[in-house]
Design a protein that fits this description.
Layout: H1 15-20, H2 29-42, H3 55-62, H4 66-79, E1 82-85, E2 89-92, E3 105-109, H5 127-139, E4 143-147, H6 154-163, E5 167-170, H7 177-189, E6 194-197, E7 206-210, H8 212-225, E8 231-236, H9 242-257, E9 266-268, H10 278-292, E10 304-307, H11 310-322, E11 332-334, E12 355-358, H12 361-376, E13 386-389, E14 392-395, H13 398-401
Parallel strand pairs: 3-4, 3-5, 5-6, 6-7, 7-13, 8-9, 8-10, 10-11
Antiparallel strand pairs: 1-2, 12-14
Helix pairs in contact: 2-4, 3-4, 5-12, 8-9, 10-11
Length: about 400
């Protein structure tokens, strides 16, 4: 039996444990204590049924406060990794012998409800990612449990850890990033597989996201092949999110391949037209028309607009009319996300996107489940994995777009 596998008791020096814990990690102190204890258990330094050293010794040897050690051990108690004996010493549990109600379940932390919002018939809406996850999980014969982040607290996460589900998927981290990442870190340190939708945190977690560069490239190339040599990106100000940089890269690649000039994106105030009335829509249109006027003047006017999402295309089309440009003829307008037919703004503007991108959200959900199960079954390298889903270009027919000569 090697020096790190010597049987231990409560008075055993912690130096052996410290040597096996690994160094150089920039972690929160409590997370470091949790990780260290789990590594000692997994490496056989402490065996099931054996007690941990005293809190004072752990704190001294790990370079943290005694209170930090106490809180970390409470987390391990909640997970079922440890149990108290005689009210003081903590004993390592035999976790392999346990199995909870959620052992054959995937937990999904999502703001989406069980059913799409009223009027959200197209799968381009973000909630269809979560629906894809729930459907794919059930197709594999597993339970799927949806958890709403706005109703969760830290104690609920510890209870989830104690139940030991197969893994946890986060579908819309961007709306509550800080809290979600704290939970994801706690879950991952507890040994549960964690998969995120999105690519904001690519160095820490397994994740699935859409190929935004490819989507913008497909749209820009389609416009260029349709004879539109001056496409302009129109984005909200400020453009937030990793996808904007990747879409710009896709646009610039297409323009560069065509030997044409890339235009700096127009960033301007864009209202969320799904939650405004007619008066606000018209005010937004007037604002956009003023922002667009300079781009329609001169010898080389803009002849295509690439909106950040389908909902923006309607206000852009109405703004083009105020500038004396006819949507679908003088200017082609393309969207993104493929939910244009559900947009509230359709009642105020008849021109619809000439083309859009479908991110295939249900397929994204399936990919999240597949990646989670591969991680749970130890079929992946230790390093976090990234899966990218190729989106599809959707070209609308000329009669729908109000332009019979629209390129097919």
């Amino acid at each position: 039996m090697g020096p790190q596998q010597t049987l231990m008791n409560d008075s055993t020096p912690v130096s052996t444990l410290e040597a096996s814990a690994g160094k150089g990690f920039k972690e929160m102190p409590r997370a470091r204590v949790v990780r260290s204890v789990k590594e000692w258990i997994s490496e056989g330094v402490i065996m099931p049924g054996q007690p941990l050293p005293a809190e004072r010794e752990l704190a001294q040897n790990l370079g943290v406060t005694r209170n930090t050690v106490r809180r970390a051990l409470e987390m391990l108690d909640a997970e079922g990794v440890l149990r108290s004996q005689n009210g003081r010493a903590r004993i390592v549990q035999d976790t392999k012998a346990r199995g909870g109600l959620l052992e054959n379940a995937i937990a999904v932390v999502t703001t989406a409800s069980d059913q799409p919002w009223v009027g959200h018939r197209q799968s381009g809406w973000s909630e269809y990612i979560a629906h894809g996850v729930l459907h794919a999980a059930r197709q594999t014969g597993m339970h799927a449990v949806a958890l709403q982040p706005q109703r969760l607290a830290d104690r609920d996460i510890y209870r989830l850890i104690a139940e030991r589900p197969c893994g946890v998927i986060f579908t819309d981290v961007k709306e509550w990033t800080d809290q979600a990442l704290q939970w994801a870190q706690a879950l991952q340190h507890a040994g549960l597989p964690v998969v995120l939708y999105g690519d904001q945190h690519d160095s820490l977690y397994d994740r699935v996201n859409s190929d935004h560069e490819s989507g913008a490239y497909q749209l820009a190339r389609w416009l260029l092949e349709a004879g539109r040599c001056r496409p302009l990106l129109v984005w909200p100000s400020p453009p937030l999110g990793y996808w904007f940089a990747r879409r710009r890269a896709g646009y610039e690649r297409a323009v560069r391949e065509a030997g044409l000039e890339s235009l700096t994106p127009l960033t301007t105030t864009l209202l969320d037209v799904e939650f405004i009335g007619r008066q606000e829509f018209e005010e937004s249109v007037r604002h956009l028309s003023e922002a667009l006027k300079p781009y329609f003047s001169g010898k080389t006017p803009v002849d295509a607009l690439m909106a950040s999402s389908d909902s923006d295309t309607f206000a852009l089309a109405a703004a083009c009319r105020l500038c004396g440009r006819k949507p679908g003829e003088d200017v082609l307008i393309v969207g993104y996300d493929n939910y244009w037919s559900d947009s509230t703004a359709r009642q105020w503007e008849s021109a619809v996107p000439a083309a859009t991108i479908d991110k295939l959200n249900p397929r994204m959900g399936t990919a999240l489940v597949e990646l989670l199960l591969q991680r749970a079954h130890n079929q992946l390298p230790l390093a976090p994995q990234r899966r990218v889903i190729e989106p599809e270009l959707v070209v609308l027919s000329g009669d729908i777009a109000g332009n019979s000569s629209l390129p097919r």
